[in-house]
Amino acid sequence: MIAVSIGITAAYLVLLLWILWGYFRCESVPDVLTDGPPPKTLFTVIVPYRNEIEHLPSLLGSLKNLEYPHSMFEIIFMDDASDDGSTELIETMLASIPIPSRIEKTPSHTGSPKKDAISHAVQLAEFDWIVTTDADCVVPKYWLRAFDAYLQNHSVQLLAGPVFIKGKQNRREQFQTWDGISLQALTMAGFGNKTPLLCNGANLAYAKNAFLQVAGYHGNTHIASGDDVFLLEKMTTQFPGQTAYLKSPQAIVNTAAEEQWSHIIEQRIRWASKTSKQKNWRNPLIGGIVFLANLWFLLGLLLSLLFSELFKYYLVFAILKVLLDPIILWTCAHFFRKRLSISYYLWSALFYPFVTLWVVFKSTTSGYQWKGRRFNT
Question: So what's the architecture of 28-260 in CATH?
Answer without folding.
Answer: Alpha-Beta Complex (3.90)
